[in-house]
Amino acid sequence: MIDFIQSETQFFIFCLTTLFTLINPIGIAPLLVVMTERFTKNERIKIAKKGSATALITLLLFAILGSLIFSFFGITIEAFQIMGGILFFRNGLRMLDAKVGRSRTTPAEQEESQESDDIAISPIGIPLIAGPGAITATMLLSSQTPHIHSYLTLGLSILIVLAFVYIILRNGDVLMRVLGTSVMRIIQRLMGLILLVIAVQFVINGTVSVIKPLF
Question: What does pTM read for this prediction?
Answer without folding.
Answer: 0.73
